[in-house]
Model the fold of this input.
Amino acid sequence: MTEQHISWAEPYKIKMVEPLFMTTREQRVKAMEEAGYNTFLLKSEEVYIDLLTDSGTSAMSDRQWAGMMLGDEAYAGSRNFYNLEAAIQKYYGYKHVIPTHQGRGAENLISRILIKPGDIVPGNMYFTTTKLHQEMAGGTFVDIIVDEAHDANSMFPFKGNVDLKKLEAVIKEHGAKKIPYVSIATTVNMAGGQPMSLANLKAVRELTAKYGIRIIHDMTRVAENAYMIKLLEEGQSERSTADIVKELCSLTDGATMSAKKDALVNIGGFLALNEWDVFEEARNQVVIFEGLHTYGGLAGRDMEAMAIGISESVDEDHIRARVGQVFYLGKKLMDAGIPMVKPIGTHGVFLDAKAFLPHVPQLAFPAQTLAAELYLDAGVRTMERGIVSAGRDKETGDHCYPDLELVRLTVPRRVYTQAHMDVIAESVERVYKRRNEIKGLRMTYEPKYLRFFQAKFEKL
Ligand SMILES: *Cc1c(COP(=O)(O)O)cnc(C)c1O
Done:
């Protein structure tokens, strides 16, 4: 816990600025009406502080921009591919590397190669694209995360952990032959950015080794997870985050990566593997979906920026400031008594809209309403994770009614300052103070697929 006494202040200074768009309340009211009370339909220019996602929204360093100028845009065998491969081998320890345009490109490849129709894929909670690729390959996802992950008020520090009893029960029920791999995410995005412990991953490794089952690692936020292990897990505080990252990777057989998160680039990802046969098949299939195996849908310059971003992502000062800034915002909101998912996640703060607006029934879309109100108050853009995102039941056609109605405040890396965090917290507090005046919404347009992206609403 010693690290907590060290300031999280930014370990960089600003050398280029991008002006933000300052709006009046009048302009925001008009923009929100035109966007049908859906923050996804706002224009970026109408937003002051954008907390929609931490994906592809990071600020690159001067080193990364310099690397962009060193792009070797040869079709085959680009120098930048070899730099990327070397960075992945050095910092993550995986043997073989295939670049992809982003994380889901790697998920597509590994799912097609390892999953057969009828297979079962246990995982520590689902992620939207990961699960969809597993299903498209004929697999069925089974949730094996600990029960605490589903409870917004549980203070359990490692809500990303696998429940080993659940995993063993799945193996016994279906047999190891039907399980091509266990899908392990560090950290767990859908649980609110919650980490898993090193001890837990070791135990998962032991159990899967006994049955001869692989672990495929969704390592999108592995550095944030490793930093939480350093902060909270017994016996880990003296280690470097980089060292813990490498150990986490060493406990798995391969990985998919969305480099748009941890690795500080605006686009990019990869598939990493230790088994030669699986790598060979992936290297063959990548040419169908992404491009040749030495560029995988990316420009040489993107691979260079990724290689540099990987080394920066495990830097101790960087990761302390990254998670420190999210905790700063989260703690401010918690101290003000704002209802939220606890503990604070590593990539954002998740407001509990059901508790925030208890008088707004679920069918009046409390999280959608709260996201719209936050925008109206100060131009802060957030995202609904509730009944709108959950969609409709395929069988009955009725809405799915998720337990949690959340509004996600995701913090981009190295983009906003402490003063911005203060603006956000003050705005949330203002909206909370006048919560009783807030009424819900009615849906006026509903798209068939992934409705949260394009649905429209009006005020009740
Ligand atoms: C973003 C994300 C992905 C998918 O990556 P893309 O780069 O968006 O395709 C997969 N898993 C997790 C946990 C993510 O957060």
Notes: The first strand starts at residue 49 and ends at 50.
